[in-house]
Amino acid sequence: MFAKMTTSADSASALKMESMWRRVLGGGQAPIWIATVVLFAVSPLVAPGSLKASALLSMLPFAAVLAIAAVGQMLVIQQRGLDLSVPGMMAFGAGLVTGLSQWYGWPVWAAIAGAIILPAIAGLINGIIVTRFGVMPLVVTLGMNAILLGTVFALSNGTPAGAPKEIADFTKGAVGVVPNALIIAVVVIVVGGFIAQRSIVGRKLTAVGVSERAASAVGFRVTLYQTMAYALAGAAFGIAAILYAGYVTTPPLFYGDKYLLPTITAVVLGGTALTGGRAALISTGVAALFLTQLGQLLRAVGWQESFQLIAQAVVLLIVILARAIVPMVSQSIKARRAATESQTVRA
Q1: Fewer Cβ close by (within 10 Å): the C or N end of the chain?
Q2: Secondary structure E strands in the chain
Q3: Rounded Cα gap, residues 160 and 39, in angstroms
Q4: Residue 178 dihedral angles phi and psi, to the nearest 5°
Q5: What is the pLDDT of residue 129?
Q6: Which domains does the chain have, with CATH numbers?
Q7: Where are the transmembrane segments (predicted)?
Q8: Which whole number is the average pLDDT over 328-342?
Q9: Spatial CB neighbours of 205, under 8 Å, sequence gap ≥ 6
Q10: Closest by Cα among 221, 220, 225 to 196
Q11: How many CA atoms lie within 13 A of 342 on its CB side?
């Protein structure tokens, strides 16, 4: 009897430990929160000035830009796609908000609207080609990326334009000590989270991402919601581009290249599965903060941008491997525990 009680207690303890490690390493939203807290705790030890007010205020606008762009990427990944047109979308949005105002004399509000609506239309085209013609998302978005980059170069004649003063003043401004760009990012994430969790549209997007067949069986218009995801992603990229253009004033033509890998990494770190399903908006925003602070920390210790990209790729690879390995280890532990308990009962 004592042996059976001991075995039962050991099994319960092992189950708790397994559950803890599964939550920490096997996916979900907890890991990125833990990693972000650890990163900010370690930052002053590695680079003493990395958490000064000036350093944080210069980092947060870039975290906001990445967070909004990552939300766009997340919408596509939720539908089991991957958007490789991020560089072109970002360059297109920035080129529109700066060029339409400086070169074509558009009012600022019209340039802003164009920088959101036209990338959304480009995303809509992506979605239509993917859903209606069955072309792989990677191929479609890669082609769209080339088209948009070519368009930006043609419209600008190879010379970047400057952001309108009103946009630059706003994006560099703050409410108290909170940068305006960060406020916009929080609004986008909160509104997006409310739509995803509380609205019929959001729930249908999630259902389609989880299982196209099941969603179609209950009468959801699968292609409509998948196409909508690509269009909304384009709008998100446009908003991110406007904030970036305003903050740096004169964005390089092809600055968007450095946002492709980070947007994917932020989505994966945030807990959204590459196989689609439920979206994790808030955690994706936290992941964007983590990656931006990590980049700033690496710059502070002298790492070049190329090594920062390698670090981001390594982080992404570790997370993907952990999510693949942890369930396998968990199943192995369960099998061994079942075999041990069976032998104990027989004894």
Answers
A1: N
A2: 174-175, 178-179
A3: 35
A4: -95, 120
A5: 98
A6: 22-346 (1.10.3470)
A7: 24-47, 53-77, 84-103, 109-128, 135-155, 175-196, 229-247, 259-276, 281-301, 307-326
A8: 72
A9: 75, 78, 79, 196, 225, 228, 229, 279
A10: 225
A11: 6
